[in-house]
Design goal:
By secondary structure, the chain is mainly α. The protein contains two helices and no strands. The longest helix has 38 residues.
């Protein structure tokens, strides 16, 4: 099966899966960043509540 260079560069059958993988990786990065920020805020809140109680 011979494919010319013109046909090879015109073919975009794998482009959709690469785009989906890129979108999924961006979503994963956003989730990691938001969980990290939320976790730090919850830790600060926990420590401030804990500091308010006498020992």
């Amino acid at each position: 099966m011979k494919i010319s260079a013109k046909d090879f560069f015109k073919c975009d059958s794998g482009a959709t899966s690469i785009e989906y993988a890129f979108i999924a990786s961006l979503i994963a990065v956003v989730i990691v960043i938001s969980v990290t920020i939320l976790g730090n805020n919850v830790l600060k809140l926990y420590n401030s509540v804990l500091a308010g109680y006498p020992e």
